[in-house]
Amino acid sequence: MSTNSAGATVRVLLAEDQSMVREALAALLGLEPDIEVVAQVARGDEVLAAAREHAVDVALLDIEMPGSTGIEAAAELHAELPELKIVVLTTFGRPGYLRSAMEAGADAFLVKDAPAAQLAEAVRKVLAGERVIDPTLAAAALAGGANPLTDREREVLRAAADGATNAELATALHLSPGTVRNYLSTAIQKLAVRNRAEAVKVARDKGWL
Amino acid sequence: MSTNSAGATVRVLLAEDQSMVREALAALLGLEPDIEVVAQVARGDEVLAAAREHAVDVALLDIEMPGSTGIEAAAELHAELPELKIVVLTTFGRPGYLRSAMEAGADAFLVKDAPAAQLAEAVRKVLAGERVIDPTLAAAALAGGANPLTDREREVLRAAADGATNAELATALHLSPGTVRNYLSTAIQKLAVRNRAEAVKVARDKGWL
DNA sequence: GGGGCGGCATGACATCTGTCATCCCGGACT
DNA sequence: AGTCCGGGATGACAGATGTCATGCCGCCCC
Q1: Which of A70, B178, B180, B207 could be stapled to B97 by a disulfide with Cβ–Cβ 3.0 to 4.6 Å?
Q2: Measured in whole angstroms, how far is the alpha carbon of residue A82 from the centre of its chain?
Q3: Does the keyword Zinc-finger apply (chains A, B) (predicted)?
């Protein structure tokens, strides 16, 4: 159990699947005298156990990871270790990601093309009880509105993303081919596009997929 | 002009668009006593000028960058500064990327989920005249064969990737709609898939797009 | 000079996709 | 009880897409 009192070093967990990036971020944080990276994992489903075992103060989570996403890991951490501060760090500044990260209990949301100095800064701020969110992204998330797709529409769209045909989608999802087309049709209209490919594209880069 | 003689420090240029990753990699390399990161750029089209200005020994290039790709930058460097060693570092281990990186004059090809230690090691090896390539990837590149698509097919497929309709592609590429369909049809057959969406997918993750 | 290949085009045809109207069911809210 | 919404389905229809045969041009190579 760590105390987080002034002067003590912050115990950080790093979750990121690309080793080179992960170890590089560790090196970066290692330069800060008040921060210590005490655990590194490459999969979302190893986050909770590692956080428990190493009694970490702050978890730094990438979203795109095998096993489970950083968002899911954040939700688990928030439920099991409510004291723990969570920083979500991701490649894509998708408004939907920000929204779901916050709903999962994240304290900070950073994109990887922000200056590196913001990383250590964010760690310190969340520890002080602050929340850290890129204002531009926050605006986009609020303006963009919530995900308009129903669960089923999202499922079907996700399944259709790789170019599967309607018949294949139907068998894969245990639906009638006609129903698949109906869901895709409504999704297409809700997203104001003209075919499934465009629908996949916009849903993806809003973080709705 | 640097000498690269034993004992001298290696002058490295880092090209990577995501600041956080770039600065983290710089921190990582900074830990090595014999390596010095003397220049950092975030765009492909700034690589050549920076390499000239800072008299670098090794250029470390990400592929996915705005301006121009790391591959294109590598080709420029190789033509203008043949002495310079080039390490291509990328997120995706696509065989096609490896192939074109090598054709562009790269001396090493690393994927970001290799262990971080390989980065400094690769820098030293290329400087010693060695070539560094992941054997698994090399095998895949050789087995996978060359890109079977013609220039036009690739162009059309790339343009179709975002879900544009045939008519739109036709006007965008100054072609007849029928011709667009012909190209897509041949591309679909060459890639042994059943529609444009799948064609885009497989072309993409072979690095052929 | 003939053959092959790539770029470009057309027309015909079969299938796939997207839309719409319409239906049934169950849960939630008034 | 009535209404709305989401899940699931059917059938009909128009338009988009994929295939194929065929033709023309220009280039390169034997």
Answers
A1: B207
A2: 18
A3: no
The answer to whether the CB atoms of B116 and A195 lie below 8 A apart is: no
Look up residue B182 and give its two tokens.
């012909």
pLDDT at A7: 59
- Residue A167 Cβ < 7 Å to strand C: yes
Contacts of B163 in chain A (CB under 8 A): 193-201
Whether B113 sits inside 8 A of A23 (CB atoms) is no
Q: Of A20, A204, A117, A75, which Cα lies nearest the Cα of B119?
A: A20
A20, A63, A193, A194: best to mutate for the B interface, most B CBs within 10 A: A20
What is the separation of C-alpha B203 from the centre of its chain, rounded to a whole number of angstroms? 15
The model carries a pTM of 0.87
Run of H or E residues at B89: strand B85-90
In sequence order, what DSSP letters do the residues of A42-80 get, joined into one string? SSGGGHHHHHHHHT-SEEEEESS-SSS-HHHHHHHHHHH
Mean per-residue pLDDT, A12-30: 96
